[in-house]
Each structure stands twice: as structure tokens, then as C-alpha cells.
Write a structure and sequence with these properties.
hydrolase activity, two-stranded parallel ribbon, alpha/beta, single chain, Rossmann fold, 3 domains
């Protein structure tokens, strides 16, 4: 009995466990039977300890943090920044371009401006500016029809719409170039330009404006009365619309398959694979590449 007790103690078993096993099996039991019973008791006690721990944690769940707090850090951070308007870029809308686009190039539809403004307001943007030439406040004429003109006055009172200066000199209208107002404000405020115009004349004025217009121009479409910007404003290899409108990107971009040819790829902007070396560079067309090489 004592020899079996000493042997089991050397193996690390507790004395009360050994005594319980020897009392159960008897002093004449084989050492292998004693060890098997000790192992069975040890496994049983471990399983009971795990079940008690799980039951303890299960009772603590209702008193723990709310579901929003125990969500994944990525999703909680995303929700936090989506609701934070400070992370959204300022929006500068080309009012004439949007209104003429909604009017199918046949008339100046002020309702199109309202639809675009409402779309960005629903996204949480607060810094929205619309530029419209001041002569659009004049009465509608057959050669330049204007619909829903009262919307312009309403947006001006809400300090969203700004009229660019214009005046008459000896019966002739003198207007300021509203596109320059749009690009200058968007550049100074590090915002987004909403227009289907490429502003090629202004791109040639300043190199920094050219790069800014290439990277911050948000084009759009109207489907009846629905304002629809693209989900990939800078192409399929660029940022998503959500990250494009933010100062700090939050939603992770989908992983793209890298091009197997790497820098040796000759497809240029037509390559369907991802080129990390071109991530921060605008995808120039073949015509632009030929013009640049001709100048060089």
C-alpha cells in the first residue's frame, strides 16, 4: 500500500486522490489499475472545472458590455467615423453643370442641384458649396429656360449656394469665370469637385490644379430624379466612393490581384490587374502618354 502511495505521489498526484483510489480498488490492486483510475479521476475533475468556468462566463454575459462594444474593432471604428462629419471632405458642386445635366442639356433644372445637395446631406456632409452664375437669377428666357428657380433662393438662404459675380456694361453682360471659383475653393479646402467637366483649361494654368482635378473630381449620372455618383470614382484600382469622400479612409479596400508582370507590364491603364507602383498615380490615357513623350 505504501509503495503504491509513494509511486503515485512521485508522479504528481494528490494524496487524497491516491487514498480514494486505493480505498476503492483495495490494497492488492495492480499498479496499472491504480494509475488508470487516477487518470480517469484527473480528466473528470478537469472537465468539471471547464464546465463550471463556462457556466460562470455564461452568467456574466448579460452583465457584460453591450453588443456594439463587443463587436469587431474594425466595424466599431468604421461606425464611429461614418457618423463623424469631421472626417468628411468639403463638397464643391458645379451648379451649372449639374443643373444642365439634369435638364438633359435643354434647360437649367434647379431641381438637379437640390437632388445633388440632398444626396450629400444624407451622407452626413455639412460643408457643401454650390456655385451658380448670378445671371441665373434673371427671368427665364426661351433661349435659356430655367425651371424651379425658387430652389436657388432657398439654397442661398441656407448658405449652401453662392452666386458668382456678373454685371451689365452698356447692355452687355459681363460674367466671371465660375469654374475658377469652383476649382480654387476645392483646392484651398482640400475638398471634392462634383462635376462632369474636366476643366482642361484650368489644368493647364497651374500644375497643382491639374493633379488636384485628376484626383478629386467626382463625376455623376442622373437616372430620372436619382443622383448617382460612381462607386469607383478613380477607376477600379482606386479607392471606393466611401473612402474617396473621407479625409482618412476607414473601410478597407478589397484586395486586388497584383499583375504578374509587375513593372514590365506593357498594357498600361488597360491592364485589369493591380499595380502597386501606380496606386498614387493617375491612370493616363494612351493619348496623354503620346503627348508627353512628344514634348520630351
Amino acid at each position: 500500500y505504501q509503495a503504491k502511495m509513494d509511486f503515485a505521489l512521485k508522479l504528481g498526484y494528490a494524496g487524497d486522490q491516491i487514498q480514494a483510489v486505493l480505498n476503492k480498488l483495495g490494497a492488492d490492486a495492480l499498479i496499472n489499475d491504480v494509475l488508470a483510475e487516477l487518470v480517469r479521476l484527473g480528466n473528470k475533475s478537469e472537465s468539471e472545472g471547464q464546465s463550471s468556468a463556462s457556466s460562470t462566463t455564461s452568467t456574466l454575459v448579460p452583465r457584460g458590455p453591450c453588443p456594439k462594444e463587443i463587436a469587431s474593432p474594425e466595424s466599431s471604428l468604421e461606425d464611429e467615423v461614418v457618423d463623424n462629419s469631421d472626417n468628411l471632405r468639403p463638397i464643391v458642386i458645379d451648379g451649372s453643370n449639374v443643373a444642365m445635366s439634369h435638364g438633359n442639356k435643354e434647360g437649367f433644372s434647379c431641381r438637379g442641384i437640390q437632388l445633388a445637395v440632398d444626396w450629400f446631406l444624407e451622407k452626413g456632409h455639412k460643408d457643401i458649396t454650390v456655385f451658380v452664375p448670378a445671371w441665373r437669377k434673371e427671368q427665364s428666357r426661351p433661349d435659356a429656360p430655367i425651371t424651379d428657380q425658387e430652389i436657388l433662393r432657398k439654397l442661398e438662404k441656407e448658405k449652401i449656394l453662392v452666386f458668382t459675380p456678373s454685371r451689365r456694361v452698356q447692355g452687355r453682360r459681363v460674367v466671371c469665370y465660375d469654374d475658377r471659383f469652383i476649382v480654387k475653393l476645392a483646392f484651398d479646402s482640400d475638398g471634392i469637385i462634383v462635376s462632369n467637366d474636366n476643366y482642361r483649361d484650368l489644368q493647364n494654368e497651374k500644375p497643382e490644379w491639374k493633379k488636384f482635378i485628376e484626383e478629386r473630381l467626382l463625376m455623376y449620372s442622373f437616372v430620372n430624379d436619382k443622383f448617382m455618383p460612381p462607386d469607383d470614382p478613380l477607376g477600379r484600382h482606386g479607392p471606393s466612393l466611401e473612402n474617396f469622400l473621407r479625409k482618412r479612409p476607414v473601410i478597407p479596400e478589397h484586395k486586388k490581384q497584383p499583375c504578374p508582370y509587375g513593372k514590365k507590364c506593357t498594357y498600361g491603364h488597360k491592364c485589369k490587374y493591380y499595380h502597386p507602383e501606380r496606386a498614387n498615380q493617375p491612370q493616363r490615357s494612351v493619348a496623354d502618354e503620346l503627348r508627353i513623350s512628344a514634348k520630351l
